[in-house]
Design a protein that fits this description.
mainly alpha
């Protein structure tokens, strides 16, 4: 047994040193890839390099599970989307997808399970994984690597290298100065080699990028390769409890309030346009603006309330369990009706004023909430202890929604809806549509031939100042599929117009 331990220690030490080397290598590559470049293919390349080095370091360890490979694929997909879609909102959702994937990976390493998660455990894991990521570099350098062993084994060589540098550098400077002073051509060659055009700001940028990229690598490698520090002490949450009287008072009162609101809303559904326009708001805009976002907030708060109540309520009998289930189902049904009212308001608003990013993404969020309510009914309400399956399903559906949004290309869909309104002779905001990301440019250029001369001139004039023209980069590290496609199409269309 002692012989086995003595054999394992050098292997762990070498693996820790290789991990440090991998972090430093990725730091240098990251500083090169993100050198004053726009986000694009560089993020995807850095992620691929990170995963490649990770798999190389793990090759002699236990193989990854299917869940582990699925998480790697998920992270790589969201990293690749930074070079696919130009929309800032989609990029933000991709970053959220990466964070959720990393949190899942931490949970898989620490708890060895994903499907059985409580809401509190998700927040605990997010907090602990964030703290773990911050402390990983320090832990890697001070705990995982045994520097006393390194000094014992490589100390003589290291001291010799240091002494050699101390003696070599001054001699190199003296002889270099004399030789450059003796020949103008040699002096010019040396100046060109040493003149890298660096200033204080560039040096700081390189150092920060190097440190950040190597830090990310340290967090990934320490947990996935060295398996160090994943099991940490988790905070103990307070054990509150709600009884049947409190549950009935809270849910019943809110259900009565929702019922009253729904009864009033039915007059709008059945009263038609006349009732909307003769109401106190007087316009569709006032009717939709006043209520839509508040109603979406109501649906979000209802989901949070039901989860909180489900966590705190500990029924002692089947009757008490049914009381909560019935009241919760009634609240979910009425919330669905309230969401239908919100959707109706949004439908009216889009018909009059068109589609925008805010209206599109809020409508998508509302659709996701409907799916979450259905999922909650099929898991937590169907069986009181199945809240864990609901949490996993919620995060999984969120990731799937982000994937679908990238495939759908929201900016292009927004442009299509507004162009349809333009062709129908309705209100069209050319300034707004052309202010969207590069994802919208192909759709707008395709529609140009079908527009009237005046509309075509206005749209083309706005496209001449599109921000994609300012964000263009000749360096391959900043290459971006959507921006490159938009620039190519704008160039081709411009040449055709000049003819």
């Amino acid at each position: 047994m002692n012989e086995l331990k003595t054999q394992i220690k050098p292997v762990k030490q070498l693996l820790a040193l290789a991990t440090v080397g991998g972090c430093l290598l990725l730091g240098a590559l990251g500083a090169f890839l993100f050198d004053k470049q726009h986000w694009g293919i560089n993020i995807a390349l850095f992620s691929v390099l990170l995963v490649t080095i990770f798999l190389l370091l793990r090759r002699r360890q236990q193989p990854l599970s299917y869940a582990g490979y699925a998480l790697i694929a998920s992270g790589l997909f969201f990293a690749l989307t930074f070079a696919w879609r130009d929309s800032l909102i989609l990029n933000g959702l991709s970053a959220l997808g990466i964070l959720l994937t990393i949190n899942f990976a931490f949970t898989l390493g620490a708890r060895k399970q994903l499907q059985r998660l409580n809401v509190s455990e998700v927040f605990q894991d997010f907090f602990i994984s964030t703290r773990y990521g911050i402390n990983s570099y320090y832990g890697l350098l001070t705990v995982d690597v045994r520097w006393d062993e390194v000094q014992e084994r490589w100390g003589t060589i290291g001291r010799s290298v240091a002494r050699g540098l101390i003696m070599t550098i001054p001699l190199l400077m003296v002889f270099g100065y004399l030789l450059t002073a003796s020949d103008a051509r040699f002096e010019e060659t040396i100046n060109q080699l040493l003149n890298w055009g660096w200033n204080k700001e560039i040096v700081i940028q390189y150092l920060l990028t190097f440190f950040l990229c190597s830090w990310i690598a340290a967090a990934v490698f320490r947990g996935g390769v060295l398996n160090q520090g994943l099991i940490q002490k988790r905070p103990v949450l307070p054990t509150w409890k709600l009884n049947r009287i409190e549950i009935v008072m809270i849910l019943s009162t809110l259900n009565l309030l929702f019922l009253g609101f729904i009864l009033v809303q039915f007059t709008y559904f059945f009263g038609g346009d006349t009732l909307v326009q003769t109401s106190q708001d007087a316009t569709y805009a006032g009717y939709a603006r006043r209520g839509f976002f508040q109603l979406v907030s109501v649906a979000s708060l209802v989901m949070a309330l039901l989860l909180f109540a489900h966590w705190l309520y500990k029924p002692s009998s089947q009757l008490e369990k049914k009381i909560y289930t019935v009241l919760a189902i009634i609240m979910i049904v009425m919330t669905m009706i309230i969401e239908a009212s919100a959707a109706h308001r949004m439908f009216l608003y889009i018909n009059v004023y068109g589609l925008t990013e805010l209206r599109f993404y809020t409508s998508v969020f509302m659709l996701w909430l409907v799916i979450i309510f259905i999922l909650f009914s099929l898991t937590a309400l169907h069986k009181h202890g199945e809240r864990t399956c609901f949490v996993f399903g919620t995060i999984l559906t969120a990731l799937l929604f982000i994937v679908v949004l990238h495939v759908v290309n929201p900016d292009a869909r927004i442009a299509e809806v507004n162009l349809t309104r333009l062709q129908a002779g309705e209100r069209f905001e050319a300034n707004y549509v052309t202010s969207l990301s590069a994802d919208v440019v192909p759709t707008l250029l395709t529609a140009l031939p079908n527009l009237s001369p005046k509309e075509r001139c206005t749209l083309w004039s706005n496209l001449q100042s599109h921000r994609v023209l300012k964000a263009s980069s000749d360096n391959w590290r900043g290459w971006h599929w959507s921006r490159n496609q938009a620039l190519t199409l704008l160039s081709e269309t411009s040449s055709q117009c000049n003819k």
